[in-house]
Amino acid sequence: MDILRPEIICIDGYRFRRNPKQDQTTEEYEEDEMGDNTMSTLAADVYCDEVCDAAASQIQETDNGFRLTLDVPSDYWKHIIGKKGETKKRLENETRTQIKIPGRGREGEIVINGRDRQGLLSAKTRIDLLVESARQRQPFTHFISIPVNSEPIQDRFGEFRDDIVRFCGEDRGVDGSIFQNPNKLHLTIGTMPLLSKSELDKAVFELEQCKEEILSKHGRLSCQLRGLEYMNDDPGEVDVLYAKIHLHDGSDRLQYLADHLVERFCARGLMNREYDRVKLHVTIMNTLMRKDPAGAGVVTSGGNKQPIRGRESFDARNILKLYGDYDFGPYDINTIHLSQRYSTGPDGYYACEAKIDI
């Protein structure tokens, strides 16, 4: 980690530096015991003298002290409990609180009880850090997207796909199954795991709050989808081939818009920043879409689809030579969506949780 650019975790408007682990040794988790061993490395530096007091007004006074409830998606409870309950016990001992978590298979809120307000706030801060750390490792469920799927674009994409299969179909790894669904051509701005209704509502609210600012600063975004590029550095071993997008006025307004959206969602703790700038691209071929010969393709585990085997790359050298400057046509960007992963809406695009019109 660059010590001048440490990893930052944003929680409730507060910014925390995440210190690097001193000991990289890990042990296997026992799922039946809902285990996780991140508490000692992540939250060891956070105690009662460093708390996030945004929840102070939510603390309720009781006959035996104080009480604070936390709305935490059940997917994260195992990270608070830890292996054999060790993380939860350590939290309770060090903050002098009692933490009640609903039993396995039940829904509800986490309740923190204690005799000292600062203890409750310290426990909340450490739980928030544990959840945020786990969140960064969670597969994404939703993403901010910009559809690029007008009928003319889809027609040109269909012609491109047919030409590639006809003239480059003998090249290693090239077949019709790895092409994007033309109804789902899009720009991905950023991804996020939203595991509860409250998290989803928060993301919807943030997107809707962006509307006036986007309209006032950017206006109409007219672009051209032209030219091919690949993600890695070897055109003979490609996993993702994408089309480049260019604004007709030559400006970087689209890049600014994308970066601004990511910055806003990261600041609200909904999204994790992976790169300094958003990579603007429209995926047209992706080996993750390759059909499995047995017809299985993907399997579902815990609501998340995962490939059942490793990727098989394809040789894109002829494609780039023959179609490297392919023009898919013009497109006016007019909507930004909060899209659901692994879904299809009534119009053939991804199911839309919310959208703003430009």
From TrEMBL:
One Pfam assignment: KH_1
Origin superkingdom: Eukaryota
GO molecular function annotation: RNA binding
UniProt keyword RNA-binding, yes or no: yes
Keyword Phosphoprotein included in the entry's annotation: no
InterPro entries cross-referenced by the UniProt entry: AKAP7-like_phosphoesterase (IPR019510), ASCC1 (IPR009210), Cyclic_Pdiesterase (IPR009097), KH-I_ASCC1 (IPR047538), KH_dom (IPR004087), KH_dom_type_1 (IPR004088), KH_dom_type_1_sf (IPR036612)
Domain K Homology: 64-132
Protein name in UniProt: K Homology domain-containing protein
Keywords: RNA-binding
An example Gene Ontology biological process: DNA alkylation repair
One GO cellular component, as annotated: nucleus
